[in-house]
Design a protein that fits this description.
Layout (H helix, E strand, L loop, with lengths): L9 E4 L23 H4 L14 E2 L3 E3 L5 E4 L5 E2 L43 E4 L6 E6 L12 E6 L10 E5 L3 H4 L33 E2 L9 E4 L1 H5 L10 E6 L10 E5 L7 E7 L10 E6 L9 E12 L2 E12 L3 E2 L5 E4 L7 E11 L20 E3 L6 E8 L9 E9 L7 E4 L6 E2 L10 E6 L6 E4 L8
Antiparallel strand pairs: 1-13, 2-5, 3-4, 4-6, 7-8, 8-11, 9-10, 9-12, 12-13, 14-15, 15-19, 16-17, 16-20, 18-19, 20-21, 22-23, 23-26, 24-25, 24-27
Protein name: SprB repeat-containing protein
């Protein structure tokens, strides 16, 4: 029952523009892996082989075969000038002109001029072994939180946290980008303090400008998150958009797997369903009201399509007559819930409901396959009031010819609303209350009757007649 016409999806994509395995790479520029004795003397020469930075980023290298070497250490290391790391005794095997150190391959670093040596542990990431994947899990009854669908990204475990740098980007159209800060109007789903966060300064994520996940989601081989976890209080602005995910290591290597995911608006969660009985025992004007946990999103032209199923024979449900309604607005109950009352007249019987929200024109046929996987509501019954029944008898005849003082007694009246009973004689259309001073009266003596045969009708306060 809780569904959205747009279906959650993920697509594995490969971008030819990103780095792939099998190419040559330079070492990470902000860190060098070889220091001479001069460096120990605090008078380092210039050139690509040296750095004067006290804060040394973690050393990364990428082999020519595409496998990655990375340091088993923390984010950046601050050391005194005379202490520096090197790749002592490490055979790099970096090929061609992309050898950042300028050495021919293979390279065996000489430690004779090194004033300090500190062991650094390296691991190799095999391109055939390191994998990433995306899975989704939409929590049942999650409809009041349109950004609550959970996404899980996972990568081959066992590597340093710095390997697991998860990133995303969102496809904003050129027209949308023109409306970002700097411009007076922001044509987005919501205006938030005059800005479209989290891109306050027009810092768009693009296929060439990915954004890192929030810090609490980095450095983990497996992350599970919602749109709220990723985008915070602005998560609703990213609902319905294709968001791409990947993993990127600090040395620039990018996994081949790029995933696309769309956070969607779940249909509002059903909170309460209240049936309304038919007016009379013999009418087909029943209805029901159902209450949900959120309103329809007007800015997205969101509407609800509801399909009603009737029990035609025992345990055999099919679409009811007047069995589908297109809902464009809900009643605000002022308590965080919203309601809708079925407009079509319904006969007494058992019913089940399905609904889904939808952005678009037209409806959704009851035969559409999108209904197949939706859950039914609990069975609910539209009842009919009890049929009105009564008894009538001659209470007394005329005392004299044409005295018109005969009486009729109407008694044991029940059914219908159980109150406000009225009677009518001989199709006169003149209805008379049993007792205007007693709405519960269920017996009446009708006087002033002359000789003859009388036909008595009785009805209740809703004008439903005994039949």
């Amino acid at each position: 029952m809780l569904s959205k016409r747009i279906i959650l999806q993920f697509i594995i994509m490969v971008f030819s523009a990103v780095s792939a395995f099998g190419q040559s790479y330079k070492l990470f520029n902000t860190s060098r892996n070889f220091w001479s004795k001069n460096f120990c003397e605090k008078n380092p020469p210039t050139g690509t082989q040296y750095t004067t930075l006290n804060t040394i980023s973690v050393n990364y290298g990428l082999k020519g075969d595409g496998s990655t070497l990375y340091v088993d250490d923390s984010n950046g290391i601050r050391m005194p000038d005379e202490y520096h790391y090197n790749l002592e005794d490490m055979l790099l095997g970096i090929v061609g002109t992309d050898n950042a150190l300028g050495f021919p391959e293979p390279v065996l670093l000489d430690i004779s001029n090194i004033c300090y040596y500190d062991f650094i542990h390296f691991l190799t990431i095999s391109p055939s072994y390191f994998k990433t994947e995306l899975t989704t899990a939409t929590t049942e009854n999650n409809g009041d939180n349109s950004t609550g669908s959970e996404v899980t990204l996972s990568a081959t475990p066992g590597y340093h946290p710095l390997v697991y740098t998860w990133q995303y980007y969102v496809d904003f159209t050129p027209e949308e980008k023109k409306l970002f800060p700097g411009n007076a109007t922001i044509a987005t789903k919501n205006k938030i303090n005059g800005t479209f966060n989290p891109y306050d300064k027009g810092d768009f994520s693009t296929s060439s400008n990915w954004r890192n996940f929030p810090n609490q989601l980095l450095g983990k081989e497996k992350v599970t998150f919602t749109a709220k976890d990723l985008f915070g209080k602005y998560a609703n602005l990213f609902v319905g958009r294709s968001i791409k995910f990947r993993i990127r290591m600090s040395n620039g290597w990018i996994s081949d797997e790029i995933f696309s995911f769309v956070f969607i608006d779940s249909s509002p969660q059903l909170r309460l369903l209240t049936p309304h009985e038919t007016k009379c025992n013999y009418t087909e004007d029943g209805s029901f009201t159902f209450t949900v946990g959120r309103n329809l999103i007007e800015s997205e032209n969101e509407k609800m399509i509801a399909t009603l199923y009737y029990e035609f024979t025992s345990n055999n449900y099919d679409v009811a007559e007047n069995g589908q309604e297109e809902i464009t607005s809900l009643i605000d109950n002022k308590n965080g819930t919203y309601s809708y009352t079925w407009k079509g007249g319904l006969p007494p019987g058992n019913y089940k409901l399905k609904y889904q929200t939808y952005n678009g024109t037209g409806g959704i046929s009851p035969d559409d396959s999108s209904w197949d996987d939706l859950r039914f509501s609990e069975i609910f019954e539209i009842k009919a009031p009890l049929n009105i029944i009564f008894e009538a008898e001659r209470f007394s005849d005329e005392n004299c010819v044409k005295s018109k003082d005969g009486k009729i007694r109407v008694f044991n009246v029940s059914g219908g609303t159980g109150e406000g009973y009225e009677y009518e004689l001989n199709e006169s259309t003149d209805w008379t209350s049993f007792d205007p001073s007693n709405i519960k009266a269920n017996e009446v003596i009708i006087g002033g009757r002359g000789k003859g045969t009388y036909k008595v009708k009785v009805r209740d306060s809703k004008k439903c007649m005994a039949k």
